[in-house]
Amino acid sequence: MLEVKNLNVSYGPIKAVKGISFQVNKGEIVTIIGSNGAGKTSTLRSISNITPKSGGKIKFFDEDITNLPSHKIVEKGICHVPEGRKIFGNLTVEENLYMGAYVKKDQNEKEFEENKRQVYNLFPRLEERKKNDGKNLSGGEQQMLAIGRGLMLNPKIMMLDEPSLGLAPMLVEKIFELIERINKELDTTFLLVEQNAKKALQTADRGYVIELGKITKEGNSEELLNDSKLVEAYLGV
Amino acid sequence: MFWIRQIINGITQGSIYALMAIGYSLIFGKLLLVTFAFGEMVVFGVFVSYYLYAIAGLNLFLAVIIALPISWGLGMLVDKICYEKFRDEPRFLMLITTIGFGIFLKSFTQLIFGTGYRSYPNFIEGKIIVGGIRITYIQIFIILTTLLLLYGLNLFFKKTKLGVGIIALSNDLDAAKLVGINVNKSIKFGHSLGVVLGVFGGMMMVSYYNAIGASMGPILGLKAFTVVVFGGITSLPGAIIGGFTLGILENLSVATFGSGYKDIVAFVILILILVLRPSGLLGKKIDLF
Ligand SMILES: Nc1ncnc2c1ncn2[C@@H]1O[C@H](COP(=O)(O)OP(=O)(O)O)[C@@H](O)[C@H]1O
Ligand SMILES: [Mg+2]
User: Fold this and answer.
1) C-alpha separations of B137 from A59, B59, B140, B200 in Å
2) Can you say whether the dihedral through the CA atoms of A129, A135, A138, A143 is positive or negative?
3) Please, are residues B40 and B109 in contact by the beta-carbon 8 Å criterion?
4) ipTM of the complex in this document
5) Which atom of ligand 1 is closest in space to residue A51's alpha carbon?
6) Average pLDDT by consecutive 10-residue portion of chain A (237 residues)?
7) CATH number where A216 lies
8) Could you tell me if A160 lies within 8 Å of chain B, comparing CB atoms?
9) CATH value at residue B159
10) Which residue range is the domain that position B257 belongs to?
């Protein structure tokens, strides 16, 4: 459903992404793993068009979305949960969820309430804190809120940028479990960008390895987890 | 009696400052559009209404009602020229573009409307005496209109998608884009709204003091800036509190020291706040540059 072809991203003279291509099929969890500075965030940001591309083509369900403005891309059902969560700190949990449904023009109260219920069922902790300002949540709660806010869109695909970053191991475990659950229960497709290669590959169906802005390996998760070179480089064994 | 009267004058003046400051705070504090053309835009908009009234001969209210959408258009134009291309650039660029545009607009206003002061009519004539205190209708008009507008703005920012979107984008621009807010459109709208609020405040001011001059821009801009710094640049309630505070203090100082000292109050406040509490009464820290 999402097809990226020969994507390039530059910051002035710095080439951050150098012609990468990959695709995500409906219902899959696909991960892009790579170390810090490899170009993962630039890739997602340029798909969402909040960072300009210097070349390449993005297709979503056979429609060319390369040059659509960011809000139109969201309207297509592409949800991007950015690195560092970026929740609205001055808004409450509930208001953040309301913002997540911003583009749902004809959504009535009932649908909104249903979606909210769904999010609260996945993340009971958010319901307990619904009147709290975003900035007063813990890192884990903020990550849940960022994903919850994204779910309010009923997205076709969710692109998550390092959801495990800065979380305690137990919470990391929980976030990945929830990703699998959302994928199964809500039939949401995932593009998961991670440094935590092992966890990401254990969750994903397929993976790509990105190094210095280039994709150097791809395969299904089993294969990649059993790749001895990769294990040495990323999986810290 | 004398002091009560001064306070009523102060509240009237404060209403005007509050409106202008909300406009300024919206532009500078919420949208983070650095502006040095605010006062000039206000004066231009007010002059348009003066022109329609005094030279084209329209009814004053009609003149005002036509001048407001023209001011809205001016807001759009300034966004196009001074901001749109530079959204992702360092903010000092906006400082330069708006200083430049401000100079242009001031000269343009002088060219069309002349350099001298003109007399601007009262929106409403007459007065009532309540318990021995004289209150003019224009004072009542200004205070009531301001309260009504503040109420409407509060609803706008709490209940409408566009309003909530502006608050959200001021909170986190990337996040706003990623929930699907059309950031460019929202910024344009917010900027024009800010300009129109400023112009409307300016119209009430010149109607209250009966005088308008093309060179009033910078001092108006500085007053709005002071009020907003006092209340906290990012805080709209702060702008309201700041507006009323400055209005009342100015009038009390005029009553005490004479009118020659009026403008000093604002700048003493500005300096004290910048030294003692740079984030203002209700504001939070922002990194503008
Ligand atoms: N805004 C920016 N300006 C300049 N260079 C950037 C910017 N953002 C990222 N980079 C550079 O681009 C490269 C890729 O960064 P990024 O996409 O954030 O990688 P990752 O998310 O994999 O850590 C890095 O070398 C980084 O320093
Ligand atoms: Mg990153």
Assistant:
1) 63, 18, 5, 17
2) positive
3) yes
4) 0.92
5) 1
6) 96 95 96 94 97 96 96 96 93 93 84 93 94 93 95 96 91 93 94 93 95 94 86 65
7) 3.40.50.300
8) no
9) 1.10.3470
10) 2-276
